[in-house]
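@channel sequence for tomorrow's demo:
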Amino acid sequence: MMDPLPVSPPRAVLFDWDNTLVDTWPCILRAMNMTLVHMGYDAWTREEGIARISRSLRDSFPGLFGERWKEAQDIFYESFRSCHLDMLTPLPHAEALVRHICGMGVWVGIVSNKTGDLLRIEVEHLGWGGLFHRVAGAGDAKADKPHVEHILHALQGSGLKPGQDVWFVGDHAVDMQCATEAGCTPLLLHHQGPLADNLLLWVPRGIYGSCGEFLDALRTLAVPSNENR
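structure tokens (generated this afternoon):
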């Protein structure tokens, strides 16, 4: 059963991208494993990848690969660019969900730790560019998710500040951490598998099993009266 939504409707809804609105794990995992093998490490299973891949490359690769992290970054990007559009798959009801929120008249954005240029290419490839006020990827702000600077960047032009009326919807603990530390409302879209233990550190205000389930919950809300669009 889906959780009830917060009583007050949002003035902004910010989404994570990978595994929240789209399934990009096959390409991400392929690129990551090509990088790991090239660098002399064992490949990861899908489960390991989903558990371990959440932070941006500039935050995670130095710890993984040390002084050779930029070499690893080049391998990853070369592999990822070769497959990401062909393997890009919207999750069921994701587009309907975003369009419904646009119809509510609220500010809609993306906060993703995918490199900004690649993220925007994917958004445009799906024809979704007009659905988002801001598409904020890794490298666009002074710091990437979970830092509040990433949320501030996504809200530029909205006249809004992070707060409970800004909902952050994502699939990973780093999304819940980002929302919580910024003072926003964290909402978890958990599409599959058991909840990871680290989610207990950043408790979401609601948990929804799919975009469709979250959309059903949103349809119970009254449309807010604001002029953000």
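heads up for whoever presents: The chain has a mean pLDDT of 89.
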